[in-house]
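This week, work through this protein record:
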Amino acid sequence: MNIREKIEYDEKNILIPYAAFSSNTKGRKKIEEKDSIRTVFMLDRDRIIHSKSFRRLKHKTQVYIKTWGDHYRTRLTHTLEVAQIAKTIGRGIGLNIDLIEAIALGHDIGHVAFAHNGEEVLDKLNPKGFKHNENSIRVLSKIEKQGVGLNLTKEVLDGILHHSGFSRKEKKSFTLEGQVVRYSDKIAYVNHDIDDSIRADLLRKEEIPREFLQTLGQTHGKRIGTLVKDCIYTTLNNIEKDKIEVGLSYKIERSLVELRKYMFDNIYNGEILKKERYKAKFVLEQVYNYFLKNPQNMPRFYLQIVEEEGLCVGVTDYISGMSDDYCLYLFNELYVPKIVMY
């Protein structure tokens, strides 16, 4: 028995019957020889964390555009917070932590520069539309490694694809691990965005409806603790009743949903950041339109995509991979006059 086989054996003795077992994976698009040390989900996690698109997350906006303070979240730190919350919930339920970590680390790979503002721009300009969760799958399967892709397992790709949204009508991941990441994403960003908004003096704790704080907690840590514990115990209770799904209790979920709505109304889509959102969209739209008219100036890899799948697809792939810094650099190079000394 090699190390991988021992880990797979241990999973069967530790995890609950409804967990995703590495030895029972639905597999990859391309069959590979098994690793002697790492399970399939450990391999996926490592491939994601060593990818170029993962590293670019450190210079992609979470909420606040071009914030120079060291303590504001970026898309990368958000991803790490989601992974940590999800692993705690998964451990409490008895799920596969390696699968959870792989899904969490890859869930926002497809996000555009300037947060959801960038996503809105590409969704408008691309005739086929644009959604960051679908783009995450494209980046990991098609764009990474110059078109080879990372060849991830179906469980990881499914969890990433279905991490977005918070409606009960939306299709859920077929693994409980993927469902955990979906909840953890909301638990993370609602709470850390409150933290960042208060730090930026754009929100005061006293302005948050009192009922949400009374239910979830008065501090950042207490709110996350409340949500994590409730998710663990509610899910275990669901499973006991043969309702095999991850969830929150009614009162706690209602408070999270309403708190999330409050943040969308007052911060994400509110008047406070309207001016910065407009500037970000303007920059991204100008860069997109430039390459739409001058595709020959894109890297050769994206020109190949243009030849195979069309101009808009190639330009969208190129733009969606840019960090905030690189997009601003290109905008300055393309449109801002240089000072010439005579």
